[in-house]
């Protein structure tokens, strides 16, 4: 069967490349905007999502992870007694100052975890050995923050809150969204660096015994451990993300830009596909005259839209990848995961199909006299 | 191709009015016409006289404002917009002054695409397309795009396309308008042949008085009114 859609598209190569460039740019715009927004969201809750815990016990009425407040560490013992709790561990997060080799100070978030159980430990070590965190004053920082922290190599020393620390390793993927680098260390070390009062913790992380219902264990913890809040990991993650997204307006601003990208992309794609149809209007009119049904013509327009969307998406993604690498150099990361790519592909297809509806409307309005004009 | 000798096209008191009230334009004004198969009819008249509108009414591309249009005893005025394409596909072949070939398709594909619409697929459609192009002496130009063909060759391809699916009616709108006189005459001879040898009804709009002798009947149209013979 002759594919009029494909032949029409590829016949005028310059026009085709201009159309594809329009879609490619739209894909780039949408993917970058959403990628930055989603990176923002995932960064906001990155430590929660990688904690390995099922439940988080926090001070009462906490707004988000970064604003943790201390409460009695005795509650960890209470939590461990609750049926269905496999383990419960203290977890500390405190804002401190990191001294760079140039002498300047950088705000950091010191994260302390139990080095024996490694609950809440960094999950991706690119340099060093996580076991070294057990050594006195050993700290790990994330490679994304290396420049800001002065690129101190493993074995190198610096100060946090005027106390000497030694870099034991470098992590990956633990970039703080509020631009205060995460510094991982043992709980004891973190407490010392942050001048944290003895007998307190900021969080308790708990794992539910396999076979127990997480929600049921959470309710039981709420009953047993007083004056705290208990969240599932997903709940605490969402709460933190929602805080930064809604309460601060920062997320809304990014989301607005992403949605604007979607609108602009749709307009570009719509204009591209509409123009392509308009240029072939006489051919569609001829098809109608020789007996093609509206359905036959819709099929051609939709096929054109789908071909455009697939090629535009592939080229758009290749461009996005390149741009994302450049943005990485500028310390702005774009989140590009499989589900995001699938989502953007579906958005591209929907944009193209939506745009083709305008074209279909135009074809429906064709004046039969058009085809008799030479 | 089959016609039963009865009137294939029957127009009764057909009018087509554009606009309303004082600004209304009577493009076709109370035209009655009976056309039978096996003949070549030529319609002449000045620009704006309503020739193309009449052709569109006969080709089921327009519905009349009043009167009735019958094709093979089917009243097309009462048919829905969904039914009309099937009538055009099965019964009517169009030839246009500007050829209206698909520029992205080769000569063979232009004909094959029409056959595809009629339900022919794959090798069967390609074979039929090649046969039709052979009939109009275009068998050696199958893989050429319209931009690589002369005006006469394009019109032959357009004729082959119009014949795809073997329609009993051929409607041609100034098919020689963009051709030199020699090539134009050849095209009209083919149309004449299609009417007489294959018993099709061929109705053609033209300005070219040099081909009138080939017509079985000539009509003249002015201000939307039809006279049966050229004045």
Topology record:
The complex is a heterodimer of chains A (374) and B (231).
Chain A: H1 4-11, H2 13-44, H3 46-49, E1 55-59, E2 71-72, H4 75-81, E3 85-99, E4 105-113, E5 125-128, E6 138-142, H5 146-149, E7 157-160, E8 163-171, E9 181-186, H6 187-193, E10 200-201, E11 203-208, H7 214-224, E12 228-232, H8 233-247, H9 250-279, H10 281-289, H11 294-329, H12 338-364
Helix pairs in contact in A: 1-11, 2-9, 2-11, 2-12, 8-9, 9-12, 11-12
Chain B: E1 9-18, E2 25-35, E3 40-44, H1 51-58, E4 66-71, E5 74-75, H2 84-91, E6 92-95, H3 107-117, H4 122-135, H5 151-163, E7 169-173, H6 181-196, E8 201-205, E9 217-222, E10 225-227
Parallel strand pairs in B: 3-8, 3-9, 6-7, 7-8
Antiparallel strand pairs in B: 1-2, 1-4, 4-5, 9-10
Helix pairs in contact in B: 3-4, 3-5, 4-5
Summarize the structure.
The complex is a heterodimer of chains A (374) and B (231). Chain A is α+β, with helices and mostly antiparallel strands. Chain A has 12 helices and 12 strands.
Explain what you see.
The complex is a heterodimer of chains A (374) and B (231). Chain A is α+β, with helices and mostly antiparallel strands and 374 residues long. Chain A folds into two domains: 4-43 and 250-372, no CATH class; 61-226, no CATH class. Helices cover 51% and strands 19% of the residues of chain A. Chain A contains twelve helices and twelve strands. In chain A, strands 1, 3, 4, 5, 6, 7, 8, 9, 11 and 12 form a ten-stranded mixed beta sheet that branches. In chain A, strand 3 (85-99) and strand 4 (105-113) form a beta hairpin. In chain A, helix 1 packs across helix 11, helix 8 crosses helix 9 (250-279) and helix 11 packs antiparallel against helix 12. Chain A starts with a helix and ends in a 10-residue tail after the last helix. The relative contact order of chain A is 0.19. The model of chain A has no long low-confidence stretch (mean pLDDT 89). Chain B has a six-stranded mixed beta sheet with strand order 6-7-8-3-9-10. Chain B has a single domain, classed as Rossmann fold (3-Layer(aba) Sandwich). In chain B, helix 3 (107-117) runs parallel beside helix 5 (151-163) and helix 4 (122-135) packs across helix 5 (151-163). Chain B is α/β, with parallel strands linked by helices and 231 residues long. Chain B has six helices and ten strands; from the N terminus they run E-E-E-H-E-E-H-E-H-H-H-E-H-E-E-E. At the A-B interface, helix 1 and helix 10 of A face helix 1, helix 2, strand 6 and helix 3 of B.
């Amino acid at each position: 069967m002759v594919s009029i859609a494909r032949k029409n598209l590829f016949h005028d190569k310059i026009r085709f490349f201009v159309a594809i460039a329009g879609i490619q740019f739209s894909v780039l715009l949408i993917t970058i905007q959403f990628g930055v927004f989603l990176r923002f969201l995932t960064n906001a809750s990155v430590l929660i999502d990688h904690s390995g815990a099922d439940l988080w016990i926090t001070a009462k009425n906490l707004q988000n992870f970064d604003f943790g407040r201390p409460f009695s560490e005795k509650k960890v013992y209470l939590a461990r007694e609750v049926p269905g709790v496999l383990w419960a561990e203290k977890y500390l997060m405190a804002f401190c100052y990191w001294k760079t080799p140039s002498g300047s100070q950088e705000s950091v978030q010191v994260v302390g975890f139990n080095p024996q159980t490694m609950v809440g430990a960094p999950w991706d070590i690119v340099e060093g050995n996580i076991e070294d965190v057990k050594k006195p004053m050993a700290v790990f920082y994330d490679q994304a923050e290396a420049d800001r922290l002065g690129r101190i190599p493993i074995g190198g020393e610096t100060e946090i809150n005027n106390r000497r620390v030694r870099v034991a390793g470098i992590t990956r993927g633990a970039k703080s969204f509020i631009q205060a680098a995460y510094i991982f260390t043992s709980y004891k070390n973190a407490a010392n660096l942050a001048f944290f009062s003895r007998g307190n913790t900021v969080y308790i992380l708990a794992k539910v015994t396999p076979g127990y219902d997480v929600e049921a264990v959470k309710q039981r913890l709420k009953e047993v451990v007083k004056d705290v809040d208990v969240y599932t990991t997903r709940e605490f993650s969402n709460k933190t993300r929602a805080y930064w997204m809604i309460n601060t307006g920062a997320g809304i601003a990014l989301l607005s830009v992403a949605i604007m990208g979607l609108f602009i992309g749709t307009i570009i794609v719509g204009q591209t596909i509409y123009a392509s149809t308009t240029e072939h209007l006489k051919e569609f009119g001829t098809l109608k005259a020789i007996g093609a049904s509206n359905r036959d013509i819709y099929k051609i327009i939709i096929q054109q839209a789908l071909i455009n969307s697939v090629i535009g998406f592939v080229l758009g993604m290749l461009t996005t990848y390149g741009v994302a690498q450049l943005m990485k150099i500028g310390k702005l990361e774009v989140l590009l995961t499989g589900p995001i790519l699938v989502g953007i592909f579906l958005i591209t297809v929907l944009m193209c199909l939506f745009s083709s509806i305008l074209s279909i409307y135009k074809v429906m309005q064709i004046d039969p006299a058009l085809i008799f004009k030479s | 191709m089959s016609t039963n000798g009865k009137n294939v096209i029957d127009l009764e008191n057909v009018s087509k009015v554009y606009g309303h009230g004082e600004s209304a334009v009577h493009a076709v004004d109370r035209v009655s016409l009976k056309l039978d198969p096996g003949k070549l009819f030529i319609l002449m008249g000045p620009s704006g006289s309503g020739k193309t509108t009449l052709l569109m009414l006969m080709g089921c591309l327009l519905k009349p404002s009043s009167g009735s249009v019958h094709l093979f005893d089917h009243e097309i005025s009462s048919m829905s917009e969904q039914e009309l394409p099937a009538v055009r596909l099965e019964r009517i072949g169009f030839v246009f002054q500007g050829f209206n070939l698909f520029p992205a398709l080769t000569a063979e594909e232009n004909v094959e695409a029409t056959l595809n619409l009629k339900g022919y697929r794959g090798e069967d459609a390609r074979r039929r397309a090649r046969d039709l192009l052979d009939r109009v002496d275009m068998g050696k130009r199958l893989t050429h795009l319209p931009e690589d063909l002369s005006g006469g060759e394009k019109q032959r391809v357009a004729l082959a396309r119009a014949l795809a699916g073997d329609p009993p009616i051929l409607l041609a709108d100034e098919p020689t308008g963009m051709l030199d006189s020699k090539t134009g005459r050849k095209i009209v001879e083919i149309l004449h042949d299609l009417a007489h040898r294959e018993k099709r009804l061929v109705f053609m709009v033209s300005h070219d008085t040099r081909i009138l002798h080939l017509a079985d009947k000539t009509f003249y149209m002015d201000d939307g009114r039809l006279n049966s013979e050229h004045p």
